[in-house]
Amino acid sequence: METAMVMTKEQLELVSEYVKNKFHLVETEQQTNNKFTLIQQELKHQRELMMTGFKEMAQRFEDNQKSIDKRFEDNQKSMEKRFEVSQKFMENRFEDSQKFMENRFEDAQKNSDRIYNTIKWQMGFGITFAIILSAKLFI
After folding, report:
1. What are 64-97's pLDDT values in tens digits?
2. Euclidean distance between the first and the last CA atom of the chain, given in angstroms as a whole number
3. What is the largest CA-CA distance in the chain?
4. Is the separation of the CB atoms in 19 and 25 below 8 Å?
5. How far apart are CA 90 and CA 84, in angstroms?
6. Measuring CA to CA, how many Å separate 31 from each of 17, 43, 58?
7. What is the reported pLDDT for 30?
8. H and E: helices and strands count for the chain
9. In 10 A of CB 46, how many CB atoms?
């Protein structure tokens, strides 16, 4: 039969302390402080990276906004230019139509005057002829 080895509480603590030290299971206060410092440095570095990223993102957004504003202004100028060209074209067409209508009105007026003068001459000739004819009949 095997005999069990019995250890006292102090012996167990010594063995436990030896194993922890041997296999670095227990961190010393210095090691803990070093890890904490490294973590703080890493967090600070990550925060700086995030802030840099936010600044770059804000700059890209601002550049995009400027680009959009510039395109909008260019489109606005282009539309105004096209509107001016269209307006000039319409004004020219209106003026041409107005001149055409004035010429047509003048032609119609001349034609009416000619017809009126012809009728007036014919009526004058007819009346004169009738007077002469009636004078010859009554004479």
Report:
1. 999 999 999 999 999 999 999 999 999 999 999 9
2. 189
3. 189
4. yes
5. 10
6. 17, 18, 40
7. 77
8. 2, 0
9. 10
